[in-house]
Amino acid sequence: MQIDPQNPMPLYYQLYSILKTSIARGELAPGDALPAERKLADIHHVSRITVVKAIDLLEKDTLVERQQGRGTFVLAKHAQPTRTPTLGFLAGGLTHPYHHSIQMGIAKVASQARVNLNVLAHYHTSHRTSTYELDELSSRIDGLIVYPKGEGDASFYAQLSQRGLPLVMVDRYLTGINADIVTFDDKLTSYHLTEILLQRGHTRVAFVNYSEPDVSSSRNRLQGFANALHNRDLVVNEDNVWLDLYADYLPLEQSRSQTHLTQRLLDKLEETRVTALVAINHDVAARLAYDLMLISSERAHLAANGDGDSDYNLRMEVTSFGHKHPADYSPFHIAIAMQPGEALGKRAAETLLARLQAPDKSPHHERLPIEILHHGGHDLQSRFFSPFNSDISPTTSPTSSSPKSAQRDSFERSDS
What we know:
The structure is a single chain. The protein is an alpha/beta fold and 416 residues long. The protein is 38% helix and 17% strand. The protein has a seven-stranded mixed beta sheet, sandwiched between helices. Helix 11 links the parallel strand 10 and strand 11. 36% of the residues are buried. The model is unreliable at 377-416 (pLDDT under 50).
């Protein structure tokens, strides 16, 4: 690390940070002598007064000891004062319930471990982030849990990692970054959600993505969907991978006026003749339920006026990932893979605390299992029809055709 003349941080503090980092990394071990003050000044192109002020700060932190006539020496670690570690959590935004539940899990572990937690909800992660901003963030926390928004964040996190800051990526991850990773088993779970629909006789199943098709969780869920179809010799193409359906979607509470989304879904259904959908998350599943009910209501209205098919019911089934149960009024949802954000946050915090205790261990990727809940209101033995009255041949139902009643809402438990 070098002193940056463009950095607004005072030169003595920059030198202090450089020496402190060298001590923390073991480049200057206990008992080692620091270079002479004049040599440090020459190396870093600063005045001797600047060097003296930097060493003063190191001495104040009891990292070094000046010995008259001998020089300045690094103190043993046990001589350093104990300090309460501070964990950081950086998310794209904490207004979403899922992000908030992850934060609650992190906070509970931090409280139990008696460490501090610094929530950095809106920190700038541009590749143009200045050295000053990176130094400032690194100085505030001892380790960081991140919910990366996309590959555009990679440079930012790579620079933090290069500064020796321990990182844990939660829910999704970026490649090429030295970090621990804690996610759900997205690929396997998506396979099971798709297989549920295939076992129920559907052969035209579509995967409904959101506005982030390139993040790791989206890629892995799509791969699980594709694996399930490939195992049954079914084709995966643009007719059943819908990336653009809800590309401009807002959360349902804000988007009820987006009537073009309902029409877009109807156009997709008529074009592809899809009979079942796998929704990538709760927000997409909620919008699908809303749009499908609007379409079903319109079909009923036309039938009542004699303008539509007498068999007007929209027969569609949906499985999805989600952080909470779908509304009970949705007749289309048959299974949901529950993502307990709090459990994910807890495990991420535990992983970061373990990393602080063993900084030299190799990075680890832990995939948490997801529980799939089946909606109790659907008969797994029933025959299916397409939304447009094209019959689907019935198949043998899954082995869980006689499920136990659920305690939560109207869902049944099933191992994923």
